[in-house]
Each structure stands twice: as structure tokens, then as C-alpha cells.
Amino acid sequence: MRAPSPAPTPGDPAPTPGGPDSFTAALWAAAAPVQGRILEHPFLAGLTDGSLPEDVFRTYVVQDSHYLKGFARALALAAGRATADDEIVFLATAGAEAITVEHELHAAFIADLGLSAEEVATTPRSPTTTAYVDFMLAHAAAGSSTDGLAAVLACFWIYREVGRALLAEGSPDPRYQRWIDTYAGDEFSAQVDRLLEIVDAHAPALGPDGRDRFAAIWLQGCRYEWRFWDAAWRGETWPV
């Protein structure tokens, strides 16, 4: 079994459009310990060496299908709160593309895993999926426009960096390699860079308190990302 890619050193930011002194670089530095825990998780190690049990991946795919619908709604809400035309277009388009991924990428996985669309639709959302989706929707609907950006940022950025880390390892399982390729791809990376540019553009107007609030929401999203993989690994269900 190959070891997963080494975890980033806490404080070392991933490359960002705004450079090493940008707000987004500070956000990444704050989240680096969580990202390290994510890259160490046995779910991701199992993706790269092909040992991830199929039933665990099946659980992940079903829950991710539910999650992406909520993610798309959160992006639509964030688009509705935005005021700049280019931000409205970006967020609305990203929401539409989240649904496209759900239909295309997950449809292929669902077929490969012997699932039906009805089985996916009727499987309840796990506690973690429910909490994560509700977290995003609450901030996007009831918070400020930048609260919504903070709530959806982790899904974009964490997945891009995980995809890049796992691409260096690859996977002998073509299904897992297809997942890695999707999130390590240039098209997805360009989306992440655009969102980071938007966040950095808003940062000066937020002020110290607003930047602290943004960072707290972002970090909570990062923690939910870890919990999402962990929930699939553990086969999390409602206790009653």
C-alpha cells in the first residue's frame, strides 16, 4: 500500500492568484492543519492505491449526489446576493455546472456501482451531509453576500488541492482515477482561481472583523470537508 502524499506543512499556503501576502493566502495558512488531516485520511489513501472498498465509495457517491444539489442551491443564493455582474455570472454558472457534474460524473459512477437513480434519490442524507448542506444554505441565504462566498469556498478549494495531491499518486482503479482527474483538471482549477480572485477583491472592504468572520466560516467548511470523507469511511447513518 502506497502512502498518501505528504501533508502540507501548516502555514505553507497553496498557490493563490493574490500572491503570498493576499487574504486568501492567509486563509489557506489557517486551514493547512485541516488540509493535512484530510490528506492523511484513509479514504483518500484508498483512492490512490485502489484499496478503498467499493461499498465505501458507493456511500460517498450517494451522499455527494445529495450534497451537490445543496451546493448548487447555495451558489444560486450567493449569486442572488452578489452585486457585480461578473460575480453573478460566475456564481450562477458554477451552480449550474455543479448540477452538470452531479448528472454526468455521478451518473457514470452510479452505473459502475450497480446503483439506480431511484436508490440514490431514496437514500437519506447522512447527518454530516445534512449539517454541511444546511450550513452552506444558512450562510448563503441569511448571511451577508461574503458569508455565502466563505461557506462555499472550502468545497472548491479543498477539492482542487486534494485533486492535485492525489494526481501525483494516481490510482490503479479507473473509477478512482476518473474522480481524481476531475478535480485536478485545468477547468476546475480555473473556477477555483476565479473564486479566489473574487474573495481577495472583497477582502479590503470587509475590515478586520469581517475578515475574521469570513475566516471562521471558511474553516468550518474545511472541517465539514474532512467530516464528509470520514462519514463515508465510517458508513455514517442516523442512530435512530
CATH topology: Heme Oxygenase, Chain A
> Shape, please?
globular
The tally of helices reads 9
Q: Can you identify the CATH superfamily?
A: Heme oxygenase-like
Low-confidence parts:
1-11
| Helix-strand makeup class | mainly alpha
- Total tally of structural domains: 1
Helix content, binned percent: over 70%
Mean pLDDT: 90
Cα-atom Rg, whole angstroms? 17 Å
Reading off the top of the CATH hierarchy, the class is best stated as: Mainly Alpha
Spell the H/E element sequence: HHHHHHHHH
Notes on the protein architecture:
With 240 residues, the chain is mainly alpha-helical. The chain has one domain (53-234): Heme Oxygenase, Chain A, CATH 1.20.910.10. It has 9 helices and no strands. The longest helix has 49 residues, at 186-234. Residues 28-234 form the Thiaminase-2/PQQC domain.
Explain the layout of strands and helices.
Layout: H1 23-39, H2 42-49, H3 54-81, H4 85-112, H5 117-122, H6 127-142, H7 145-169, H8 174-184, H9 186-234
Helix pairs in contact: 1-9, 3-4, 3-6, 3-7, 3-9, 6-7, 6-9, 7-8, 7-9
Brief summary:
The chain has 240 residues and is mainly alpha-helical. The protein has a single domain (53-234), classed as Heme Oxygenase, Chain A (Up-down Bundle). The chain is 78% helix and 0% strand.
Kindly list the characteristics that best describe this protein:
78% helix, 0% strand, mainly alpha, Heme Oxygenase, Chain A, single chain, disordered N terminus, 240 residues, globular
